[in-house]
Amino acid sequence: MTFAGVALGCGNFGGVGSSPAFFGQGTDEEAAFAIMDAAWARGIRWFDTADAYGGGRSEEWIGRWRADRGAEDLVVTTKVFHPDPGDPTRGLAPDRIRRRVVRSLERLGVERIDLYLAHEPDSETPLGATIATFEELVEEGLIAAWGLSNYDVNGIREALAHGRPALVQNSYSLLNRGDEEEVLPLCAEERIAYVPFGPLEGGWLTGKYRRGEPFPAGSRMTQRPEPYERLVDDHVFDGLDRLAEEAERRGVDMATLAFAWVLSHPAVTGAVCGPGRPEHLEPVLAALDVELSPDEREQIGSFW
User: Fold this and answer.
1) pLDDT tens-digit series, residues 142-165
2) Would you tell me how many other CB atoms lie within 10 Å of the CB of residue 246?
3) What is the pTM of this model?
4) Number of Cβ atoms within 10 Å of the Cβ of 16
5) d(Cα 10, Cα 175) in Å, to the nearest integer?
6) At what angle do helices 294-301 and 254-263 cross, to 10 degrees?
7) ∠64-218-243 over CA atoms, to 5°?
8) Coil, strand or helix: which one is 75?
9) With 0-12 CB in 10 A as exposed, 13-18 as middle and 19+ as buried, what is 160?
């Protein structure tokens, strides 16, 4: 199976990611169905979730939507590591993975998960034991492929000593370029799909956050700002101003240009978008029609 293109991120369905403090909040079921309908209508056939997103609501709603819409050819990525209200444990121990994969299959209403990711490293479980369990699940037909999320280059190299991940999913954007030095070259060398999350950096690259102005109500900065507090800086706002000017010159949205920049990296095979509303899909999909040369990519990257 080839993992490429735009995936619909469902991390805010019924919560804000895997954070227990927000279970039951975030995007409600009706709005989630509207987003999935819009994504499907626009040709997106790959949804990305995790067993703990929204305390399990994300998987459940995807499963209900899939059954109701008859979307049999939907490709689903889900992840394992974090606890939810039905299982307070966490990690990647083999017995826990086996328990959690069964629950994910039930919620999603499928017999096999297309792509199963370790959501983050588990310092208490040898990675070889985790990967051996993933490989067993592939042999048993419960998952089609496995991969890694939030792993650095050393973690990926360690994984390669035990098996071959199909995909790496880390954070990558104009404002978060740490993977460029080692992770992206390694994925290219080993022919591992690299499909990042956060290409718009929690909304920072859409133009919604402005220098000297209050954060918009309901935005990520008013709900779970901790991962992005480092961006409240004049240097960042200066770069955003330059990105806005470049986008205007090209006749596209800031979000479109920022997403296109991520896709323009030769080792990036796709990206996950997490729209809060159906209309947020439009600038993302418009990025598929934007071609950036290496020089243009370098120029835009130099804004920060």
Assistant:
1) 999 999 999 999 999 999 999 999
2) 16
3) 0.96
4) 18
5) 22
6) 120
7) 105
8) strand
9) middle
